[in-house]
Amino acid sequence: MSNEQQDGEFKWSVTSERAGTTPAFPLDPTLLGALLDHSTTQVGIFGRDHVYQYANQEMLDGLGRTWDQVVGRHLSTVLGPALYQERYARLSERLFSGETLRWSGWLGGPGQGWRFLKESMVPFAPVDGAVQSVAVFRHDLTELKQRELELADKLQELQASEALKSAIVDHALAALISTDAKGLIVEFNPSAEAMFGRTRADVLGRPVSEIVMPERFRAAHEAGMQRMDGGGEARILGKRMEMHALRADGSEFPIEMVLWRTSVHDSIFYTASMVDLTERHNAAEQIERQREALRQSEKLTAMGSLLAGVAHELNNPLAIVMGRASLLEEKCESADLKADVQRIREAAERCGRIVRTFLNMARSRPSQRHNVGLNEMVQAATDMLHYGYRSHGIELQLQLDPTLPEVLADGDQIGQVILNLLVNAQQALASLDGPRRVSVQTGVESASGQAGVWLRVRDSGQGVKPELHGRVFEPFFTTKPDGMGTGMGLAVSRALAREHGGDLLLESVDVDSSPDGLRGASFRLVLPMCAQPPEDTIPAPLAELEDEPMLARILVVDDEPELTSLMRDMLEGAGYEVATAESGAVALELLDMARFDAVVSDLRMPDMDGSALWRELSQRHPSLSRRMLFVTGDTLSLDAQKFLRDSRSDSLDKPFSKADLLAKVAALMS
């Protein structure tokens, strides 16, 4: 029976039975000495007086002493007082009472430094006699213990290294996938799980090509693996590559990948580090869309400037055509001839509306709101797009409420919204087989207690997919083919509508309940009905002017003879006395010689233009300078706009009709 005790850093094993009785047969001392001297166990014997009686060669070597330095000497002399007191003196009573003690641990001995020893101390006594001596059996396990400690240190270092590597791999932002030489997955970190939508347990042992590669790339991957397995060239190792990967749901996405090879105990492993490029690609695409939008904007700006210049040059001849047609219509007595002239006048007025729309779109100025008619803006927009609709075989249906009230709005901005909606509808029908129709409706509604007017543009196209309804108003988002549109039209149009206190909406179309049966996109513009009351004006009494032709004297100043003649005829036909001047300098001479009640002048003229003439009149004839009407086609000029604003002078844009001119002059005279 035995038990164990812990004593300091030594572990003691105690045997309760008495041990070490004299053997039953005698041993030759010489033979016994030879056996012990050749034993690999250190053996020493000391008596009750704690004096060494015997030590074999292994014990002497362990103590680093000779026979004479050990045998016959006290334990304290051989081992040192401290070790003697700690290990042997305090255990003497137990040993000589017959207990066998065993211990193991590090021991600092003379000559050998610290050694790891395993020792048994066995008492010996004659039969039925007291213990006379103690035999010490000692094994030096220092080298074994050192190797064990080294292995433990290495294991600890390996565990720490593995823990570090595991922490790096598990917390890496990049997806890390490792495979063996056959392409079977052996590691799949958490980032890879998140990126590909698969769990590590689900993919371990499966071919990597089956898990992360689109099918069209798998054959090339397998060929590359076979080539490298056969010692062929590794074409992609260590190179950054962009390619497409496959998620668990079957969707593809762009990645950047770096692949490297590792040898572990003659086994080959491949590890791929992958980064999802979806956001980077989306950002790059958005930047490219913005660049394209900027290029389109610059192109449209240049085209707008060109068209505005062309339109500006058309102002004078158009004004002449419109005015002469109007005068000719009044002179015709034949109904057939009058109808022909009326068609000429209407065509010229349509050209005038188109030119005016071009100029309004190209005009750069702050928002100016006044009472405008939505129906009139629709008519102007459809006039401009009439040829494009007709050439594309699109039927345009107008259902405009004739009682529609005016709204307080910037006519240029709302006109741009209407144009955008009509152009979108035209482009939506460009590739449609079958009937092509666009319906434009206007009306009055009262929603949430606030009255407003609305405009609806609906086409017979394919419509907008339900999942895209929430995106059609996003900047740079478009469902049109490449090269058609920038994705800004609807976004700008909605912004303009909301600036006016209204909104632009994409309506859901119910074909069964739709009165016109159109199944395409339907956009609805709503504007608040908050027009200002019209200012009281005194219209020109045309009927009375015929009885009193000398009602007022008007000076017309213009460097364009045909336009000067036209305005003269219009004004004289209304009963005014008219004089003409081809420049500002000539006008000043006439004003010094005769009295005039008002001046109608072109703004841009050689020699002395309209603004210089106004400044001269402000000095010479102050009252007359407040009765000047400036006829101009220079609506794009900031200088012209500033002059008209600073001088508080009224203006008439070219081209104009007879009614426009007479109304302006009547207001001037009043």
Would you kindly provide a written description of the structure presented here, covering whatever features stand out?
It is a single chain. The protein is 44% helix and 24% strand. By secondary structure, the protein is α+β, with helices and mostly antiparallel strands. It has four domains: 2-140, Beta-Lactamase, CATH 3.30.450.20; 172-276, Beta-Lactamase; 365-534, Histidine kinase-like ATPase, C-terminal domain (Heat Shock Protein 90), CATH 3.30.565.10; 542-669, 3-Layer(aba) Sandwich (Rossmann fold). β6 and β7 form a beta hairpin. The termini are far apart.
Which oligomeric state applies? single chain
The portion of residues assigned to helices is 40-55%
Q: What is the average of the pLDDT values?
A: 79
**Known CATH architecture of the largest domain:** 2-Layer Sandwich
Q: What would CATH call the class of the largest domain?
A: Alpha Beta
| Distinct helical segment count | 23
Strand fraction equals: 15-25%
Low-confidence stretches: 1-25, 536-550
- Please describe the biggest sheet, giving its number of strands, its sense, and whether it closes into a barrel: 7 strands, antiparallel
